[in-house]
Amino acid sequence: MSTVRKAVSLLELFTLEEPEIGLSDLSRKAGLDKATARRLLMALAEHRLVEQEPVSRRYRLGAGLTRLARIRDAQLPLLPVAIPILRELSQQTGETVHISEYSAGALLTIHVELSPKANRVNVNVGQILPLHGTASGLALLAFVREEIRRDCLRTPLAAFTPHTMTDAKQVLQAVWLAAERGYSRSGQGYEEGVHSVAAPILGSDGYPIGTVAIASPVSRADDSVAAVQGALVIEATRRITKQLIGEPVEPAERALG
Amino acid sequence: MSTVRKAVSLLELFTLEEPEIGLSDLSRKAGLDKATARRLLMALAEHRLVEQEPVSRRYRLGAGLTRLARIRDAQLPLLPVAIPILRELSQQTGETVHISEYSAGALLTIHVELSPKANRVNVNVGQILPLHGTASGLALLAFVREEIRRDCLRTPLAAFTPHTMTDAKQVLQAVWLAAERGYSRSGQGYEEGVHSVAAPILGSDGYPIGTVAIASPVSRADDSVAAVQGALVIEATRRITKQLIGEPVEPAERALG
DNA sequence: AACGGCGGTTCAAATAATGAACCGATAACG
DNA sequence: CGTTATCGGTTCATTATTTGAACCGCCGTT
């Protein structure tokens, strides 16, 4: 494993639940020697990607990350634009709504608006979603470049639940349906008991840069609910796309059977 | 130079002005071989710290940074709390206001509210401020732990303008004055023609975690203006501190002559 | 006082990083 | 329309960096 990968994997040990970690703990969790972990941390600290709490001597993520993230967000300010729209969508539907960003062949969940209901779907920020097993993934596949879709479906498809579609043909059917309707649907393909509906956010080139999904307990989902949610999620993503680009964007391509 | 440092220095080449850079360009700017730069970028991309624009093949900062920054900000949510207060402060004074975070022995500027006036001070997000040459630095030094202050003033002090105080005794005088008044003042210590007034934001332990500064053209600054700005910047930092911690915080220590 | 865990350091051995030369593709030029 | 330059990307023998077991001093517990 390259040194850089090890260093970054150290960064990824910090979570919302555990934002400060000591050296020994950190090295154990990363599977690295203490000396190695320390050298990597020092290098990261030099650029403020981590910092050390002076009294406890524990490490935490550094201010440099805030800075870099702001540079990125200035270029592609997804969250500030999307969050109010997601909140509204969550209120309209009473369900958990999450937004994911497409990056390096996968979807990364970057924000969640939780349903106020006691029986709700919980989604974590930072979660990586498989393209073939989630509504978000299907919505993305329905509008990406043909080549990316092919690459994704060529590799063997992992099963996350007994309901996961692992046959490429089957997935393609769902993708075609999503391309036609404008929204995708997935029942328990990634997590048991979770039903989702999703639509893509388009970039200025007409290809998806991410997705928005509404996740409900299966007990509250049926065809008519899905149709309503589908229409709402399409509207939400259109609004986000429009605000992001400054004008409505048409999909550059649609998966067609 | 360690591999990690090289990798991070690649990240730091991306700026608001140039958020997308090609491989050759990137390797030249970093002073690295093209092959080396590429390997580093691949490692970073694997963790989504950078991503590659599929068509132009140029690189840009990745979504993983947004995610990590959100974890950090959840722990220390300076900006969301501070920005509205900074904006107000900028409107009250008509001057440029900036906030910096203390990390690893230096101040990093994390947000700027620019003055609406034509003749204004421009400050860039991401800029690192020297502790002895800026009002922000002096405000910090006035309230940090004795040991940090000593360490800072022991090393030779760089001169950024003919006005920079490079004598530790002289700097200490300014620090003492700042500790007494609650705000610091610096005239052209870092940039010609810039006058600044600053105060510290305190963490729950009573030590500064950052500073807020009001930067004016020297032509608009005199003793009475500075006194007014000083009172305003103290009030702003107190409000930020209070919102951050949940209650007012008294300084743990003051530099005293 | 003995113990165990912490953060941090050392240095010979082992492994990973390096970069000059190369490839094919694309854009610019006379 | 060939020539040239630059792009992103790759290769592999050479080289320099990373590695980790053992060590330190420190602190709180037993």
UniProtKB/TrEMBL annotation, chains A, B:
Residues 1-63 form the HTH iclR-type domain. Residues 64-246 form the IclR-ED domain. It comes from the Bacteria. The keyword Transferase does not apply. InterPro entries: GAF-like_dom_sf (IPR029016), HTH_MetabolicPath_Reg (IPR050707), Tscrpt_reg_IclR_C (IPR014757), Tscrpt_reg_IclR_N (IPR005471), WH-like_DNA-bd_sf (IPR036388), WH_DNA-bd_sf (IPR036390). The keyword Zinc does not apply. This is IclR family transcriptional regulator. It comes from Mesorhizobium retamae. The lineage of its organism: Bacteria, Pseudomonadati, Pseudomonadota, Alphaproteobacteria, Hyphomicrobiales.
